[in-house]
Amino acid sequence: MPINKICKVCDKAFAWEDADLEYFKRFGFEPLDTCRDCLHMQRLCFRNERVFYRRKCDATGQEIISLYHPDSLYEVYKADYYWSDKWDPMSYGRSFDFARSFFEQFQELKMQVPRLAIHNAKAENSDYCNTSVGNKNSYMIFGGDYNENGMFGVLCDKNRFCVDLDFSYNNELLYFCSDVVNSYDCQFLFNSDNCANCYFCEECSGCSECILCFNLKNQKFCIENKQYSKEEYFEMQAKLINGSKETQRNLFSKFVVNRKNKITKYAHVVNCQDCSGDYLKNSKNCKLCFDVANSEDCRDVIYGSKVKDCFLSDMLGLGQELAYNMVSALGGFNNRLSFWLIDSNNITYCDFMNHCSDCLGCIGLNHRSYCILNKQYSKEEYEELMPKIVDSIKKNQEWGEFFDPKLSCFGYNETTANIYFPLKKEEALARGFKWQDKTDHTYKQQTYRLADNINDVSDDILDAILQCETCSKNYKILKEELAWYRKKSVPIPTECFDCRMKMRADLRNPKKLWERQCDKCGSKLESTYDPAKEQKVYCEKCYLAEVY
Predict the structure, then answer these.
(1) Other C-beta atoms within 10 Å of 217: how many?
(2) What is the Cα–Cα distance from 452 to 485, expressed in whole angstroms?
(3) Do the Cβ atoms of 359 and 376 come closer than 8 Å?
(4) H or E stretch including 53?
(5) Alpha carbon 272 to its chain's center
(6) pTM for the model
(7) What is the C-alpha radius of gyration for the chain, rounded to an integer number of angstroms?
(8) Are 68 and 74 in contact (CB under 8 A)?
(9) Which residues, listed in sequence order, are joined to residue 264 by a DSSP beta bridge?
């Protein structure tokens, strides 16, 4: 039977359902006293995706780009030094003291072991990317891999010449799009696939030359879902897509209004079996999951790619299997209560481990096994000591709990937690999170008055400082960025990249499920569309019958 609880963080009532209890039992843990949302916040506050600083490498003195504020108490090394043999994380190892708290000893170790400045592997001319692999000539890509000539994107893979692109794959020449696959030369396109030359459209498949259209399949030369001749369409397109910021803004406003009136499927679920949540693809038996693809038998996961049997975890990928209460892990098997793992197995309460196995309470190890608090043991010694330390953690009633937010290297406002679960400073501090007051990088030059049309923007803008119309922060335009805007007749943005990302994120559904009915047939649904809002939400059967 379900267990009712009161969250020890937010004081709200919640319940662990029978399926949750089965997962807790499978992983060998007792049901937690913290609700789902607070658990996600607790894990994600350890992940800084997109707040960068300039600081010096503590080993070489060279200026570097880093996730860690210059005033951070942690030692920070640039990548080539961090991965070299010039230092050894094992030199910080110590024996476990049974008279003291495990987490207290872990924090002491954490304060001493140097940190990697930024997580950006195999990058080519892409210094300002993070949690990424294999990007080339790219800038400000976060959690996206193998992009080429891209700028400003989140969790986007294998795209070319795209700007402002999130949760999208295998595209070319896209601008300000989200959840798009296999598309070409589109702007303001959302939740669509195999489209070309489409603008301000959503839920379209196989379409080309369309503007302000919704729920179309294999259509061409349409504006506001109305068919035009080729000549009529291009005459109207020339007036609408003309490089003017004012025209672009009016079209976007109309798009936002029109999308509220369109017929909507209960969730963005494609080729899935027995799944619940949203933005799910090619998955089976994934419940309460969001942004999960090619996965199986997972529960309560935010973002997973090719993962299996994972529970209460976030940001998993590349074959992670049997993960419990985890965040940021790629590959590996049977990991729990840890963050930043790469191809590691049987890891417990660890931080940033690369190709390791059978470790407890370790930080920054590379190709190591049978270690506790960065101290090496034999297999027999480890297997004897490990359960004794677990018993010690259980006696303190901490076993199964994720790390306290105070052990995070970052302020809440620097982290992914604040993107998915935004809090004001006072709220964050009241919940036990830290806060970074020095995240805003401002420039001293005068701000620049921006021309409305891209054709009227001179090269002087490259030396100018622009002020974001939304948050008032200052930002600059790159040379490559300006060339891209000119080529595609895209007006210079009047918002900084953070606010543009938030605009796209606000168009996606929240990571929350409501019980509601299909507005066509009345069948019961679990949907991320709030029933209190006026939207036409259909079950999949009614949606397909109406739209296709």
Answers:
(1) 12
(2) 13
(3) no
(4) strand 53-56
(5) 22
(6) 0.95
(7) 25
(8) yes
(9) 537
